[in-house]
Amino acid sequence: MLSQWFADEFSLGIAQAAVAAVILLLFAFVLTRIKINLFKEILIAMVRSLAQIVAVGSVLIVILNGPILVGGLVLLGMMISAAVTAARRVKGIPGAQRAAFLSIVLGSGTVVGLMTFLGVIEWKLESIIPVGSMMINGGMNSCALALERFRAEIQSHTDQIEARLALGAEPKAATDGYVRAAFQASMIPRIDSMRSLGIVWIPGLMSGMILAGSSPLYAGIYQFVVMAMLFISSGVSALISVALVQSGIFSEADQLILRSNNEIQVRAR
Amino acid sequence: MDISFQMRQNEVIAIIGASGAGKTSLLRVVNRLDEPSGGEMIIDGKDYRDIEPVELRRQAGLVMQKAVLFPGSVADNIRFGPAQRGINLEVNEITQLLERVGLAGFAERDTANLSGGEAQRVCLARALANQPKLLLLDEPTSALDEDSRAGVEALLEEIIREQHIPCLWVTHQISQAARMANRVLVMDKGRLVKDGPVDEVLNAQSMVR
Q: Which pTM was predicted?
């Protein structure tokens, strides 16, 4: 209906956004009637998200017409921001930020580089930036999950780790099992989403390609390709991030320094 | 913690004091699980910071208050220490160690199915498998029930006597200290308040009481 009234894409977009915003605000209003007062938060979140995504769209118009080097810089910026986000969730692990950055760079960098070289990703900014950003996002999530799980494993097994150290184990040997557990836990969401692909959900990329006019079959197959790449970049990021912080939780004299807050208080008494 | 003492070969030193006196901290520093904020520790004329922590810990066998066993079989636990140095214990060596701690036939038992006393015996055998030159015992029987406590204590006393392993033994029980130790250190609020032969220190202690 809207497309009959608005001829060009830009004004159509504004009209569609307006309709979506009005319905969202109506829903927020209904919520206040049943004493769930989220109106202000929803309003702020809505305005923010719209402003951000319009800004990104505008920037992308400029970038996609620029040299390929610009794409590299954009991805680098995304990686830094992803590393900061991932590391923020795991405060207390020494060197988490550095580990998160390196692991995301290596994970998404290798996959994007290799796949572009092999021709799976086209050598143009329209492909590299969106696919690259998906890889970075996947790497960020897995890296945060792995680091968080690693911290939890270490903090809940302090006595086991110290018992191993006390028997003459190197820090690495005393904690390798927890690195594996953290990695496995961080990959469960990836495995689940691969397994349920197409049955439980049709992912954004495939939906987007279909909306843009691609054949659903090709869109589906390409979605699988992206999922596989996502799996690899997430896996590499998770593994590298945990391996990098593993030695950092010990002092130079091989003493475990990452402890739970509770225990520090108990031992300080 | 501020403490200074010398330990001689074959000496069994009991460490007593109220909880929070720093007894466990002292053992953890000797095993280098914790770093002292200052001072020095000399072992055989060598600053202990010059000894690799891994090597120091192997030689100073620590048995903690809580029996912490690794998932797997009893034999896996016994093998752990030597395996860190690339040594694979033979079956008969494991059998001997288990017999030594009164657990003959326990090698293949899952550590999840042991009683408190059995678990603590495995911890002791596991520490002995490293052939330590010093034993650090942190109230190894305090978490056990009365029956297993007596058994493990008798065992420890026997091993220390037979193998002449010098020993720092944190204990709550004055009677145990009197039976086992040549010397007693009394700690209070991180400081050493008394250090002397068993009779002397314990008599003074009981007079205070």
A: 0.83
- In a domain, residue B5? The reply is no
Q: Which residue has the tokens 């869109």?
A: A219
pLDDT, tens digit (0-9, with 9 covering 90-100), for B22-38: 999 999 999 999 998 88
Interface residue of A162, A167, A249 to substitute, partner B, most B CBs within 10 Å: A167
**Domain, as residue range, for B153:** 12-208
CA distance A144 to chain B (A): 27
Do B168 and B62 meet the contact criterion of CB atoms below 8 Å apart?
no
Q: Are A137 and A230 in contact (CB under 8 A)?
A: no
Q: Does B127 touch chain A (CB under 8 A)?
A: yes
DSSP B209: -
Tokens 């970075």 identify what position?
Answer: A136
> Which CATH number fits the domain that encloses residue B148?
3.40.50.300
Residue B130: how many other CB atoms lie within 10 Å: 21
Contact at CB, B33 and A159, closer than 8 angstroms: no
ipTM score of the complex? 0.92
Nearest CA in chain A to B20: A269
Residue B4 belongs to a domain: no
Residue B82 falls within a domain, yes or no? yes
Question: Amino acid letter at B33?
Answer: L
